Amino acid sequence: MPLDYETLRVIWWVLLGVLLIGFAIMDGFDFGVLMWLPWLGKTDMERRILINSIGPTWEGNQVWFVLGGGAIFAAWPALYALSFSGFYLAMLIILLALIVRPVGIKYRSKLSNPAWRSSWDFALFISGFVPPLLFGVAIGNVLQGVPFHFDSFLRPFYTGTFLELLNPFALLCGVLSVIMLAMHGAFFLNLKMTDSLQKRAIKAARVSACAVIVLFALGGVWIFYGIDGYQLNSVLPHDGPSNPLQKLVIQEIGAWFFNYHLMPVTRLLPVMGLASALLALFTARWASLAFFSSALCVFGIIGTVGVSMFPFILPSSSHPEQSLLVWDSSSSQLTLFIMLIATVVFLPIILAYTAWVYRVLRGKVTLETVKNNQDVAY
Amino acid sequence: MISGADVVDLSRLQFALTALYHFLFVPLTLGLSILLAIMETIYVMTGRDIWRQMVKYWGILFGINFVLGVATGLTMEFQFGTNWAYYSHYVGDVFGAPLAIEGLMAFFLEATFVGMFFFGWNKVSPFQHLCCTWLLALGTNLSALWILIANGWMQNPVGAKFNYQTMRMEVDSFFDILFNPVGQAKFVHTISAGYVTGAVFVLAVSAYFLLRGRNQEFAKRSMTVAVSFGLASALSVVVLGDESGYVANSNQKMKIAAIEAMWHTEKAPAGLTLFGIPNEKTKKTDYAIQIPFALGLIATRSFNEPLSGIEELIKEGKGKIREGILAYDALNRLRHDPTDVEAKADFEQFNQSLGYGLLLKKYTGNITEATEKQINLAANDLKPHVLPLFFSFRIMVACGFFFIFLFATGFYLSVKHQLHAHRWYLRLAFLALPLPWVASELGWIVAEYGRQPWVVQGILPTFMGVSSVSPAQVLTSIIGFVVFYSVLAVIEVYLMVKYIRLGPENC
């Protein structure tokens, strides 16, 4: 095989990040728009305009989530098995919310009954609000470690409860996640709306950008002073078999900052998270630039989480020595390689046709857009 | 012993419910997407506006259905992780890859171009729009390809081997997984079934218009497309369904034996039981009507190869379970001491049967010291329930032959320009509407229920695959899904009926 196991593992760790960030950036503004739906859209027509801003493209964006799930399954099966079965009820709620979303977008405007429409508006708000909240809560728990272990046949056992997931730090991460995507959605609306809807969107975007800066900084301080990071405390070959029972791990406060000392260039990620939120704040008049900055902010924040934890993927709080690492929880070398080829071939094609579709559908969504597309508009 | 048999049953129930529900929408998506592309091709070639109206109208109905297929597909993608965590760990190295490639190759394509299909009419040229529609159809069909490669591997796990260092199955030859004959046969069978569903749907709704005496031109053209496309697809389903039966016989003899209620090995070539009532107690099929030789010919394509019966397969299974015990023992020694050469050799020799050893986990925590009684119990588990398989299969096949009749008649009438003139045919076509769904759902029941007790044939017993969650959690999610899905079903049927009633002129 042309690539060694260690390199493939690092590549797939990066690709995991790419997929999660791709999901957060591409589908993130869909969540954001739906979160703002009842608050920015005062009338039924305004709400329709808001929905139609994401109408033609949210479906493609959602595939980032599906692909993320598939890629975690294929490249990090232990992570797939543990996280989804461990966060069972949270995952159920996320799924139900995500099931509501396509149905709501598609069916809401099919009937003109006001009760029907306002029920769907509420459902759409929930479907935009709840998944980012729970994703953030999940990340907050991953940063602290979650209670799990394996038996000798590598059957995973998760020993926490749903309510334990809702601890203060995790909730902070959840709120950060919600507001980050609300900001991103509002900057998207700045791009797509006109007149009073655009004005409202700019206001919403600016308020959320400020909140993102504060919450992200607060999260960093909290981790620095109050959260035990994890550190590998034994020799673990980077190309050994994927068996997470062959190492020692210690918990140490500040450990999540070690990578920034080892590789100072990584400090750019948190800096980017903060700086691009600031940039977005002041560039709302140039809607494209502001939206691009907002996307960079999302990139910086999620990238920060990943780099802080490397090489940890999912630390175990109850059995730290069984934590999942990049070096011991991946698929086999052959599977990683095959998947890499598939990704290298298809990801550029996907980006190309997605870009084409966005180009075709570019421009403002207005009252006229909805009226001129009466037969298909949502 | 594995605790939480409740979790196993509940997880299976949830998977069955959500998968069958998901597959209410998938076949129509598969079939209608191709029919839309065909209709739009005719529109672009002839430039006649009625074909554009047809694409738009059937497109609206397509959209109402498509969205639920997408929504319920999300559950499927993540349910392996939430409810089948050990399965995910055990075979994720193999099974995850086709799922991920499905996302890369198919889901992005269909989900991106479905937006263009609906919103692109005035934004791009007719030819570009046609390309978008074909890409949408291609995307839906490719997603079927990859999921059936994944499912085909569960039926016939080729190209993978067990790695004792990581305690899981790992890819050995991706080529074998890709070109698994079971996966390929299932793919063609399944998409053909989808095409039949799309064709019956268009036919039945058009028949409804004609019975009401409305939208004549629209309905007649739609029917012509539907019967031609439907006839080819219905023939393909039956021919390729036969092919998948033949392929299945090489590695899932028990499934074939159960479908056919073949209790004992018969002299070659075995007879085909057309009808009867399988009796699990007496191990006989009451009131059986048989066609001599037919089954042997279908399943083995030869006159002298015998087909194994259920009892003989159970006996064979006992031998494999004993080998499985040896494999399990060797594996334990290897895990203690990876340098143990003798253990390695033993494991190499018997690891093909490791899965059969695992069947004993239901009855004993200590597999290496299983008693004769426990081995017998495990071997008896190899037999799936015969009765539901026997009938599901027969109803599915009957539907299949009925579709050929339905489309062939329609095709004949269409050639004679008589499609609208025979009310009995229109009524028949309308009443046939639910049958493709009946056939598809029963087909999946045969495929999946017939594979029990295995989640991966011969490799991993179903009861081993579940997550370490509590029955209460699974019960909660089942209730959640049932309530949610029921509401969605009501809404979708309501909208579908509403838009069919409105008809092309009012949409």
Task: Give the topology, please.
The complex is a heterodimer of chains A (378) and B (507).
Chain A: H1 5-26, H2 28-40, H3 44-54, H4 58-75, H5 77-86, H6 88-107, H7 114-144, E1 148-150, E2 156-158, H8 162-165, H9 168-192, H10 195-226, E3 228-232, E4 249-253, H11 258-262, H12 268-282, H13 287-309, E5 312-314, E6 324-325, H14 333-360, H15 367-372
Antiparallel strand pairs in A: 1-2, 3-4, 5-6
Helix pairs in contact in A: 1-4, 1-13, 1-14, 2-3, 2-7, 2-9, 4-5, 4-14, 6-7, 7-9, 9-10, 9-13, 10-12, 12-13
Chain B: H1 5-46, H2 49-83, H3 85-119, H4 126-155, E1 160-163, E2 168-171, H5 174-178, H6 181-211, H7 216-251, H8 253-259, E3 272-279, E4 284-291, H9 294-300, H10 310-336, H11 341-350, H12 354-358, H13 372-380, H14 386-415, H15 423-431, H16 435-449, E5 454-456, E6 460-461, H17 471-502
Number of strands of chain B: 6
Reading off the top of the CATH hierarchy, the class of chain A is best stated as Mainly Alpha
Overall number of domains of chain B: 3
Morphology call of chain A: globular
Classified in CATH, the superfamily of chain A is: Formate dehydrogenase/DMSO reductase domain
Task: Output the number of helix runs of chain B.
Answer: 17
Give the structural class of chain B.
Answer: mainly alpha
* Gap between N and C termini of chain A: 50 Å
Helix content of chain A: 55-70%
Count of DSSP E strands of chain A?
6
Secondary-structure class of chain A: mainly alpha
Series of secondary-structure elements of chain B, N-terminal to C-terminal: HHHHEEHHHHEEHHHHHHHHEEH
